[in-house]
Predict the structure.
Amino acid sequence: MTKSPTPCSLIGRFVEKTFSAEVLSQGISIEPIKCFSIGLGRTFAISINRLKCPAPEVLLALAAKITLFGSMSLGYRSGCRSGRILMSFLDDASVLITGGTGSFGRALTKRLINSKARRIAIFSRDELKQLDMKNEFSDDRLRFFLGDIRDSSRLDIALHNVDYVVHAAALKQVDTGEYNPMEFVKTNIVGSQNVIDACIRNGVKKVVALSTDKASSPINLYGATKLTADKLFSAANNYSYGYGTSFSIVRYGNVMGSRGSVIPYFKKLATEGKTFPITDKRMTRFWITLDQAVEFVLESFEIMQGGELYVPRIPSMKIMDLAQAIKKDFKYEEIGIRPGEKLHEEMISPDDSRRTVELSNRYVVSPIFAEWGFTPPKGKAVKDGFSYRSNTNDLWLTIEELQKLITNH
């Protein structure tokens, strides 16, 4: 009786066939190791073997996070022993997360606890959420700092002997920002500059700042403050380079499972048999899971030079498909787009496309000015006038895939 091929062997054959020329030219052999579930559907870990270890960008270009229509992604590890990417830079490192009690901060903390990090510091303003995290994560390496990024002296204390920083703190509610503009400026712009200065003063090695799709061609104050913050973090490399601190930015769209997600709201309405309020039937959005966002940020730490903006290649979904995935025979009322809201998301504008290259799992936007010696990564230059928008994306989630994601999260 012929033995059926395992899913891992099938994906291994697919990768070798798809990347045969690149695999041969790099002298890399690919061996499937383990199948596991994370994020969108099934993810497959592989081992990448080569006599001379390839550069991180080569690994990314050949084998990192290949996504097929949003339903299957390929993880990579060198000498893989389990389902997650081995991040050796975290070994014996001290990591601080600003806004660490938010959805992303909690997911990242969970990931860091499973690493060999020496110390994990949470910096946030909310003492109740910090208490919740203390009760959820019992680990002696965790440190909690009450503080506001508007307070530079408090940042100096928290950042003492810290190696890596993820800057996730921000005010984010679009309508609130329109009514309280200066509060958003103080936190998202002035606070970000405080983080930059404190990181340089304390000798932090690398900083990744989280951006948002609303920072690309912004039409609301929140987006404008985040775009300004992006520019601050990129430009900071001009004077931080001599101090040994590098800053980069990661930008992604809607995060499934994050606070404020529409899914719990739609689920509640479905249970109560109520009508779904749909802003516009044509609306599309990018989609990424918390686990995927965390892994993407950690990968970015590995390959960053400083000054670049990383944007993941992730699938899009239609708002009507999402509603149908939650309730097949849903009833809806079209209520119109809210002030400051876009019909389709954009993460790279046409003007930024001239500085953008595409790798297998991400786009990289080079800084406008790079006097510190930034070298653009080797990749495929996007077409002139290219924009990365949710409605023109080449990766889409089906209703069935959305149902699977909603069930798993």
Summary: Confidence is low (pLDDT under 50) at residues 1-84.
